[in-house]
User: What shape does this take?
Amino acid sequence: MKIQFRWVGLNKHFKEIQIQDGLTLDKIRNGHAWTFFAESNKGEYGNCKFLGEDLFSGLVSQDGVDAYFNDVILYQNTEGQTREAKLWYDNRENCLMVGNFPYHVLFNSAYIQPSKLEFKIVGNTYEIPDINKQ
Assistant: This one.
């Protein structure tokens, strides 16, 4: 699995979420990070309010998009019901979670069909904060 992450920040001027994904340590060392996330732009007078850093989950959506922790996804269970869930890491259980379910439990159950999680990314917890209340 590739090790990559994304940075998330709020553009204070335009009040918009800015996301740079696909980051690796090599890309940062070689200057491939946006200047929006530069330390000089994060201070009191800067335009970036840094919101978070999310790791790549190891999952890829059915559209071929890398999924990160704190992404919100839609998937279907075997009964054809569409479910919305947040991808997150549970330190206590030491595993990737899909909503309230450990990924390995979902993957090995009859709850989803076929026996892999096919999903679409619909946003993230920075853009859909109500998902944290579920």
Observations:
- The CA atoms of residues 12 and 45 lie 10 Å apart.
- The first helix runs from residue 25 to 29.
- The radius of gyration is 16 Å.
- Helices lie at 25-29, 39-42, 103-107.
